[in-house]
Design a protein that fits this description.
Blueprint (H helix, E strand, L loop, with lengths): L2 H5 L2 E7 L2 E7 L7 E6 L13 E11 L2 E6 L10 E4 L7 E7 L2 E7 L2 H20 L2
Antiparallel strand pairs: 1-2, 2-3, 4-5, 4-7, 5-6, 7-8
Length: about 130
């Protein structure tokens, strides 16, 4: 690499599907460092929003779905969320969604479950009591 390239800072931007990658070449480094930033794109006419991750407790079965109630305050699903019938009543499930489209969900287990039960024990009992 020539002396001029080492002194100046060169920045290249590569645009891919749903993300932008920035490459920066600095004064003391001959290797490019990459940072990947993913953006959620909105459809025409909608505001841009990011996905939301919340924890829900499975309360009851409704038809072939399960009604799960949020453990904390939820702006987008205050009355609960319907999940597929693959959990048990009382399970705590972490759901990542955007506009009612679930991207990821997982059952909470182990130490994380114990921590949530300690933190939300009264709320969980209250939710389960009102079937």
């Amino acid at each position: 690499m020539n002396k001029f390239a080492k002194v100046t800072v060169a920045t290249m931007v590569a645009v891919g599907l749903g993300g932008v990658t920035f490459f920066t070449l600095g004064n003391d480094s001959e290797q490019a460092q990459a940072t990947n930033k993913t953006h959620v794109s909105a459809q025409e006419g909608e505001e841009k929003q990011q996905s939301i991750t919340e924890k829900f407790v499975v309360k009851k079965k409704e038809d072939d779905m399960l009604l799960a109630i949020p453990l904390g305050k939820s702006q987008n699903a205050p009355d609960g969320y319907l999940l597929d019938d693959k959990y048990k009543i009382g399970d705590i499930v972490e759901v990542t969604y955007w506009n009612d489209d679930i991207f990821k969900e997982r059952k909470i287990t182990g130490k994380e479950l114990n921590s949530l039960q300690d933190k939300y024990g009264k709320k969980i009992k209250s939710i389960m009591k009102h079937n």
